[in-house]
Design brief:
InterPro entries: 3Fe4S_ferredoxin, 4Fe4S_Fe-S-bd, Fe-S_cluster_ET. Ferredoxins are iron-sulfur proteins that transfer electrons in a wide variety of metabolic reactions. This protein is α+β, with helices and mostly antiparallel strands. Helix content is 19%, strand content 22%. The strands form two sheets. It has a two-stranded antiparallel sheet. A two-stranded antiparallel sheet has the order 2-3.
Length: 63
């Protein structure tokens, strides 16, 4: 599984980091980022974070 946040779409709501803190964090400007080395495969909350994002900036690719 590969998780990606489109930085051009992200508005910094922080829903990803609140929903799946083991995979997502926020940068110094408050925008969501994927924690380095985390692919989301071991966290069942990743799909919830995708749904919680108000601008659908998170994408998940299988494989």
């Amino acid at each position: 599984m590969s998780v990606h946040i489109d930085s051009g779409l992200c508005i910094g709501s922080g829903q990803c980091a609140l929903t799946a803190p083991g995979v997502f964090t926020t940068d110094d400007d408050g925008f969501g980022t994927v924690i380095p080395g985390k692919d989301g495969a071991d966290d069942p909350m990743v799909n919830e974070a995708v749904r919680a994002c108000p601008v659908q900036a998170i994408s998940v690719a299988e494989g």
